[in-house]
Amino acid sequence: MSDRPRLLPLLTTHRHGSRSPMTCLYRCGNACDHPVPNRSDNPYFGDLVDAEVSRRGVVRAGAVGALVLGFGGAVASGAAPAAAAPDAAGPPTVPAVPEISDFAAPQRGTGSGALTFKAIPPNKLDTLVVPNGYDHSVVIRWGDPVVPDGPGFDLHRQTAARQAKQFGYNNDYVGVLPLDRQGRRALLVVNHEYTNEDLMFPGFTSQDALSVEQVRVAMAAHGMSVVEIERVDGTGQWQVVRTGRRPYNRRVTAHGTRFDLTGPAAGSAFLKTAADPRGRVVIGTLNNCAGGVTPWGTVLSGEENFNQYFVGGDAVADEVKPKLARYGISTTARYPSGSRRWERADERFDLAKHPNEANRFGWIVEIDPFDPERRPRKHTALGRFKHEGANVIVARDGHVVAYLGDDERFDYLYKFVSEKKYRTGDSWAARQHNLSLLESGTLYVAKLDQTSAAEIDGSGRLPADGAFDGRGSWIKLVSGDRSYVPGMTAAEVLTFTRFAGDQVGATKMDRPEDVEPSLRTGKVYVALTNNSERGAAGRPAADEANPRNANRHGQILELVEDSGDNTAEAFAWSLPIVCGDPADPSTYFAGYDKTKVSPVSCPDNVAFDAAGNLWISTDGNALGSNDGLFATPVEGPERGHLKQFLTVPVGAETCGPFITADNRSVFVAVQHPGELTGASVENPASNWPDGDIAKPGVVVAWRLDGAPIGT
Ligand code: FEO
Ligand code: CA
Ligand code: CA
C-alpha cells in the first residue's frame, strides 16, 4: 500500500473477554450467539454425589515420576521427535533424514527449572513485546512464498493459485521438526485456522459480495504449511530458507488436498457422498486449530469450528438435524449468521445437496512433513468433535496415548490409547509401523468427581481442604470396532462422539482447549479457557473442576494418571492455576505468593520447554491487556510462579507456542492481529508486522546472550 493506513478508533464493543465481535464472527461463526450445542441432560457432576469416590478422593502426589524420558529412548519426546531413516527394508521416501539427539539438550530432571526472565507487564501496544535481554523476529507471514516457485504477496493481484503457493492466513499451531543433527535446519509446520475476509480483500463489503475467485482464495488460505527454516548465525533466531530445492515445502488447503480416512468409521454410511461413494477420501481440511508433534515425526492437527462452513442445514432430513445441531450447525436457517458462503465455489458445502459432507470434518489430521508425496490422513479412531488438537505420549508399556479436547462450552475431554505399541529405532520399517498407530485403539471420555462438592458455590473460593481436586475415570466409548455405548455402533460413536459422551455421563467442562502431557512426568495439563454460560439460568452450575460461574478467565487442570501409567482408566485431578488478576480472590496459583505472579486470562494453548516448565498462551484476555505467552514451573517450590514472557499486537491472540528442545528458541503464532470490528484493509486496526496492513505471522524469540531460556 502506498500510504500508511491510519489507525481506526477502536470501534469494538468487546463481547467475550477482550474478543471483538469480528473475531467472534470469523473464528467460530458467532458460536456464543447460538444455543450451547450440549443440551443433553447428562448430569454435570455438581449434581452427583459419589460417596465412594469422595472417600478415595485424594491427590496422590508423587504417584507419577517413574517415567524416564529422553531423546532416542523408548519413550520418545513429542517435543522433538526423531524422524526415521530409510533403510534397506523399504523405499526411501525422505531425501535426508535427521536424528534429534544432537539437536536437543537431553531432557533430565523433574520439571522444576526456574525461569530467569523478568516478567513483562500487561500492555495494549501494537507491537510484540519480549523481556529485556531477549529479541524477536518474524519468521514468516501471510502471503510469503512457501513452495520454491511461490509468488510474493501482492494485495491487489491475489488469486487462489497464488495463495495456494503462499503462507496461509491466521496461523495457529506451530511445530518445529529438526532436519539435521546440528540444529541448523528444521521444518516449520503451521496450521491456518480461518480467514478474515474484511482484512484480506480491499473494498470488502460482505461475504455475499465476494467473487467466487475470492472464496477460493479463502479456501487456499486455510489448511497447513510446511516450510524449511534455518538457524541464523548459531543464535536462537530462525529464518525461512529462500534458496535451493526445499523438497519438503508444501501447502495443504481446504480445497486442493486429498485426505485418506482411516479407522473404524472410514467407509461407513455416514461418510459417503456423491463425490466419494466409498467414504474414504475427503477433499480438504478445515479450521485447523492446535496440534502436536508425534514421537515418529509427524504432526497432528485438530479440525475445530468446521460447522461454520456449511449452509443448507435447514433442508436436511429431520432425523439428521439433531446430528448437525449437536455440532453447532444451524438446522433452521439456510444461511446462518456469519455464513462464509463457500457453497458458491463448491456445492459440497451445501448440506441440502450433500448432507454427509459435514461428517467428513471435525477429525484429527496427521501429516508427515518428511514425505511431501504422502497423502495426509483423518483418523476416525480419535473421534469427531470440535478438536482443539492432539498431543501424544508413549506410555510405559509402549502404547501410544493421545489427549484430546473438544473446545465448546460444556463439552468434554477425551483420550485415545493405541491398539499397537510404539516401535523404537530409526528403521524405515519401524517408522511405517508407527505411522499406523493412530488408526486403531480405544477412545475414552473423562468423568471427573469432586472432593468438596458441598463447598463449591460458584465464587471460586478454595475449599477447606485447600484444593480444587478429586478423582476421575476414563469411560470407554469404543475399542477397535467394538462400541461400549448402548445403541450406538462403533462408527456412530466415532462420527457422533459428542452423543456418546452425553450418554455415558461425561463431565461438562469449561471449553477444553489444548491438552498436553508433560513428557518428563506423564502428568497431563488442560487449558480450560472460559465459560460465560457456567451457572447461567438453565445451564450447569459451577463444580469443583469448573469452580466459577460466568467463568471469564478460565483455569488449568492437571491430571495424574493412576500409577503414572498413561493408559490407566482412572486418575487424580486438581486445578494448579485458576486464572485472572492475582488480586482477585477467586484466582489461585498453586499456593504461590500471588503478589509475584502475572495476571493471566483465557488460557488456550499449552507447551513444555526442555526443563519441563509449562508455557501457556492466551486467547481473549478478559483483563483488558493484549494476549500473551506465560510460563510457570509445575514441579518444586516454584510451581505456580507464573510469569508473562511475551505479548502480541492489538487484536491478536497468541498461538503455537513451541519451544525448541535446546531451549533456545520460542516460537509463537500471532493470529488475527488487528481483528477489531470496523477494521478493514483500508483502515487496519493494527499495522503489525510491516507497518501497513495487519498480517498474521509466526515469530521466534530468543535470548540475546545465547543462553537457554530459563535455567
Ligand atoms: Fe481454535 Fe479452541 O481455539
Ligand atoms: Ca477439594
Ligand atoms: Ca486454540
Chart the SSEs and their pairings:
Elements: H1 21-28, H2 51-56, E1 134-141, H3 160-163, E2 171-178, E3 185-192, H4 197-200, H5 212-221, E4 223-231, E5 238-240, E6 250-252, E7 258-262, E8 281-283, E9 288-293, E10 299-303, H6 321-325, E11 364-367, E12 377-379, E13 387-394, E14 399-406, E15 409-411, E16 413-421, H7 428-434, E17 441-448, E18 469-479, E19 482-483, H8 490-495, H9 497-504, E20 509-510, E21 512-517, E22 524-528, E23 555-561, E24 570-578, E25 588-589, E26 603-608, E27 614-618, E28 628-632, E29 643-647, E30 653-659, E31 665-671, E32 697-703
Parallel strand pairs: 7-12
Antiparallel strand pairs: 1-32, 2-3, 3-4, 4-5, 4-6, 7-8, 9-10, 10-11, 11-12, 13-14, 14-16, 15-20, 16-17, 17-18, 18-19, 18-24, 21-22, 22-23, 23-24, 24-25, 26-27, 27-28, 28-29, 30-31, 31-32
One calcium ion (CA) is lined by residues 451-452, 463, 465, 467-469, 544.
Descriptive report:
This is Phosphatase. This protein is mainly β and 711 residues long. It has one domain. 8% of the residues lie in helices and 26% in strands. It contains nine helices and 32 strands. The strands form six sheets. Strands 13, 14, 16, 17, 18, 19, 21, 22, 23, 24 and 25 form an eleven-stranded antiparallel sheet that branches. It starts with 20 loop residues before the first helix and ends in an 8-residue tail after the last strand.
